[in-house]
Amino acid sequence: MKSYRKEITIETPHRRDYINITRQVEQCLHESGIREGLVLVNSMHITSSVFINDDESGLHHDFEIWLEKLAPEKPHSQYRHNGFEDNADAHMKRQLMGREVVVAVTSGKLDFGTWEQIFYGEYDGMRRKRILVKIIGE
Ligand code: ZN
């Protein structure tokens, strides 16, 4: 069995952003040489997510509105976590959108459904963050 590991670093220009990282994960798969197996992609932070969904800007706007309803950023004082920090909402948004995805690798390609794309969801950005890509197989 072969094994491959890489960290992707991202610094988003805004506090919250959705970044399509599918091409970067495909590049990792290419570098790994693995043709059959599994790819794990996870955020290495507790205020951001990796998830699979549609690359459609209206939907990303809808995510933003939905997340702000469930875990509004402001007022910061509504959260006990916000003493030295102001990112309690980001921890909660991450819980809603998830930590990681696993994608099957078949014939050297990510074995997606028709509209599936991999996204990095940032909820406390404007600083360097890391995403782990781990691929196993043969
Ligand atoms: Zn925090």
Summarize, please.
This protein is an alpha+beta fold and 138 residues long. It is 25% helix and 36% strand. The model has no long low-confidence stretch (mean pLDDT 98).
Report what the structure shows.
The structure is a single chain. With 138 residues, the chain is α+β, with helices and mostly antiparallel strands. It has one domain: Jelly Rolls, CATH 2.60.120. 25% of the residues lie in helices and 36% in strands. The protein contains three helices and eight strands, in the order ββαββααββββ. It is elongated. The mean pLDDT is 98. Bound molecules: zinc ion. Zinc ion binds next to loops. The site of zinc ion has 4 residues, from loops.
